[in-house]
Design a protein that fits this description.
single chain; about 90 residues; alpha+beta; four-stranded antiparallel β-sheet; globular
Length: about 90
């Protein structure tokens, strides 16, 4: 099952994102479930959220994966959405 993990950072938490970025990227690279990942950027080019496309067996696995992300553990996000996704192109 393809799942889009869409996260929005809490306001004024760029320092939290930067402080946990290395651990977050290592978590992404260590996971065979990550198909694509990257940050959302504001008009200044600063990161303010994340989009990660996961291939997992079900939504329960996606919730567990998202909760184990170092960014989530650091309390970075104000909103986290998990949406089943259907790849049409690519």
């Amino acid at each position: 099952m393809l799942i889009a993990l869409i996260c929005t950072d809490k306001p004024d938490h760029l320092d939290t994102r930067k402080a946990n970025r290395d651990a977050h990227v290592a978590y992404l690279k260590a996971s065979e479930s990550v198909l694509q990942a990257g940050p959302f950027l504001d008009a200044n080019g600063d990161m303010y959220g994340s989009l990660i496309v996961l291939d997992l067996p079900d939504m329960d696995a996606a919730h567990a994966w998202a909760a184990a992300d170092p960014y989530a553990k650091a309390g970075l996000f104000s909103e986290v959405r998990l949406e089943q996704w259907n790849r049409v192109i690519g």
